[in-house]
């Protein structure tokens, strides 16, 4: 295929990540995470993103190299700009089930689920990860949607409380968030530098031995510490919430750390050989290869979960009972179908970027690209977008218009790069 980059990978343009929000926040006073000075010290190129000044890359490792390093080793991402919240009260599950499509009543303690907030029209207000804890729900959602998410939640919370519902909702303002991503090595990386003062030991062969190494240092059985589960662990004596999850398609962990300790924990991780800092540029290309959506691009408040290929987030019980905003629109779509669907594309020629038209071979417009760019791992150009129902089947030949030129494309299965989640 002409899309294969045969001799060398092109440098991923900084705009592939920086453009995501720089225009929207160009004139705004940007917030800083607790790691801002740390990023600058380590050569981070700071750009506006979701109202924050965030690193798009680092001077010692470009976007392309950082992407490949995460696939082959381990990288640390600052995701402290994400909105962390907590719900408490005996009616917390019942309240939040009115806003999201997840089955929280049957979500076991210590387990998490990807879900979406929906509106009355069935559109997606935001995507979110919800973890069931012993006495609360721990929720992580997108920084760029924080203001509207909070307004939406508080509006419905007041009504629920006025009707006698027992629930409280609070922003977690005293913790920062980092993600360590890259195969099965992270468990070992955390264990050797963050949970003890022992010097690093040789990396084990990727696999269950990594979790076993962590288990011996935390003093508890972590055999069942699988993908989308979480636990409170002490990292170098600091109690943190650790979840086995991420946004890259790699095995990894998201670690919520008391903000006064975030530099200490990040530096401890970074001292381990083979761990590097990574920025928005690599995060964007990694999540695209993993077939993961970016809100505001692949998802918005006019797109339903069924159209987005996220029907699987709607649990069986919720399909039977409904009870969430927009269920009267979303549930019939599961049975009757939709007029557009999110698909993955392999594109020949130049990379297809957001907004590129998708056509049939005979020239009829059937959709639009929502995310796209070179895949460093596959050495091909990939894209996601929405096409008319019937054009979404695997292998369907299509055309993408890039800078006025028609380029061949075909529908392929996502993720583009096989996920390495530890299940």
Automatic annotation (TrEMBL):
One of its GO terms (biological process) is glycine catabolic process. Its EC number is 2.1.2.10. It is an enzyme of class 2 (transferase). It is found in: Mitochondrion. Residues 35-182, 207-316 form the GCVT N-terminal domain. It comes from the Eukaryota. Residues 340-417 form the Aminomethyltransferase C-terminal domain. It catalyses: N(6)-[(R)-S(8)-aminomethyldihydrolipoyl]-L-lysyl-[protein] + (6S)-5,6,7,8-tetrahydrofolate = N(6)-[(R)-dihydrolipoyl]-L-lysyl-[protein] + (6R)-5,10-methylene-5,6,7,8-tetrahydrofolate + NH4(+). Keywords: Aminotransferase, Mitochondrion, Transferase, Transit peptide. It holds the Pfam family GCV_T. SUPFAM superfamilies: Aminomethyltransferase beta-barrel domain, Folate-binding domain. Substrate binds at residue 254. InterPro entries: GcvT, GcvT/YgfZ/DmdA, GcvT/YgfZ_C, GcvT_C, GCVT_N, TrmE/GcvT-like. GO terms for cellular component: glycine cleavage complex; mitochondrion. The glycine cleavage system is composed of four proteins: P, T, L and H. The glycine cleavage system catalyzes the degradation of glycine. This is Aminomethyltransferase. It comes from Jimgerdemannia flammicorona.
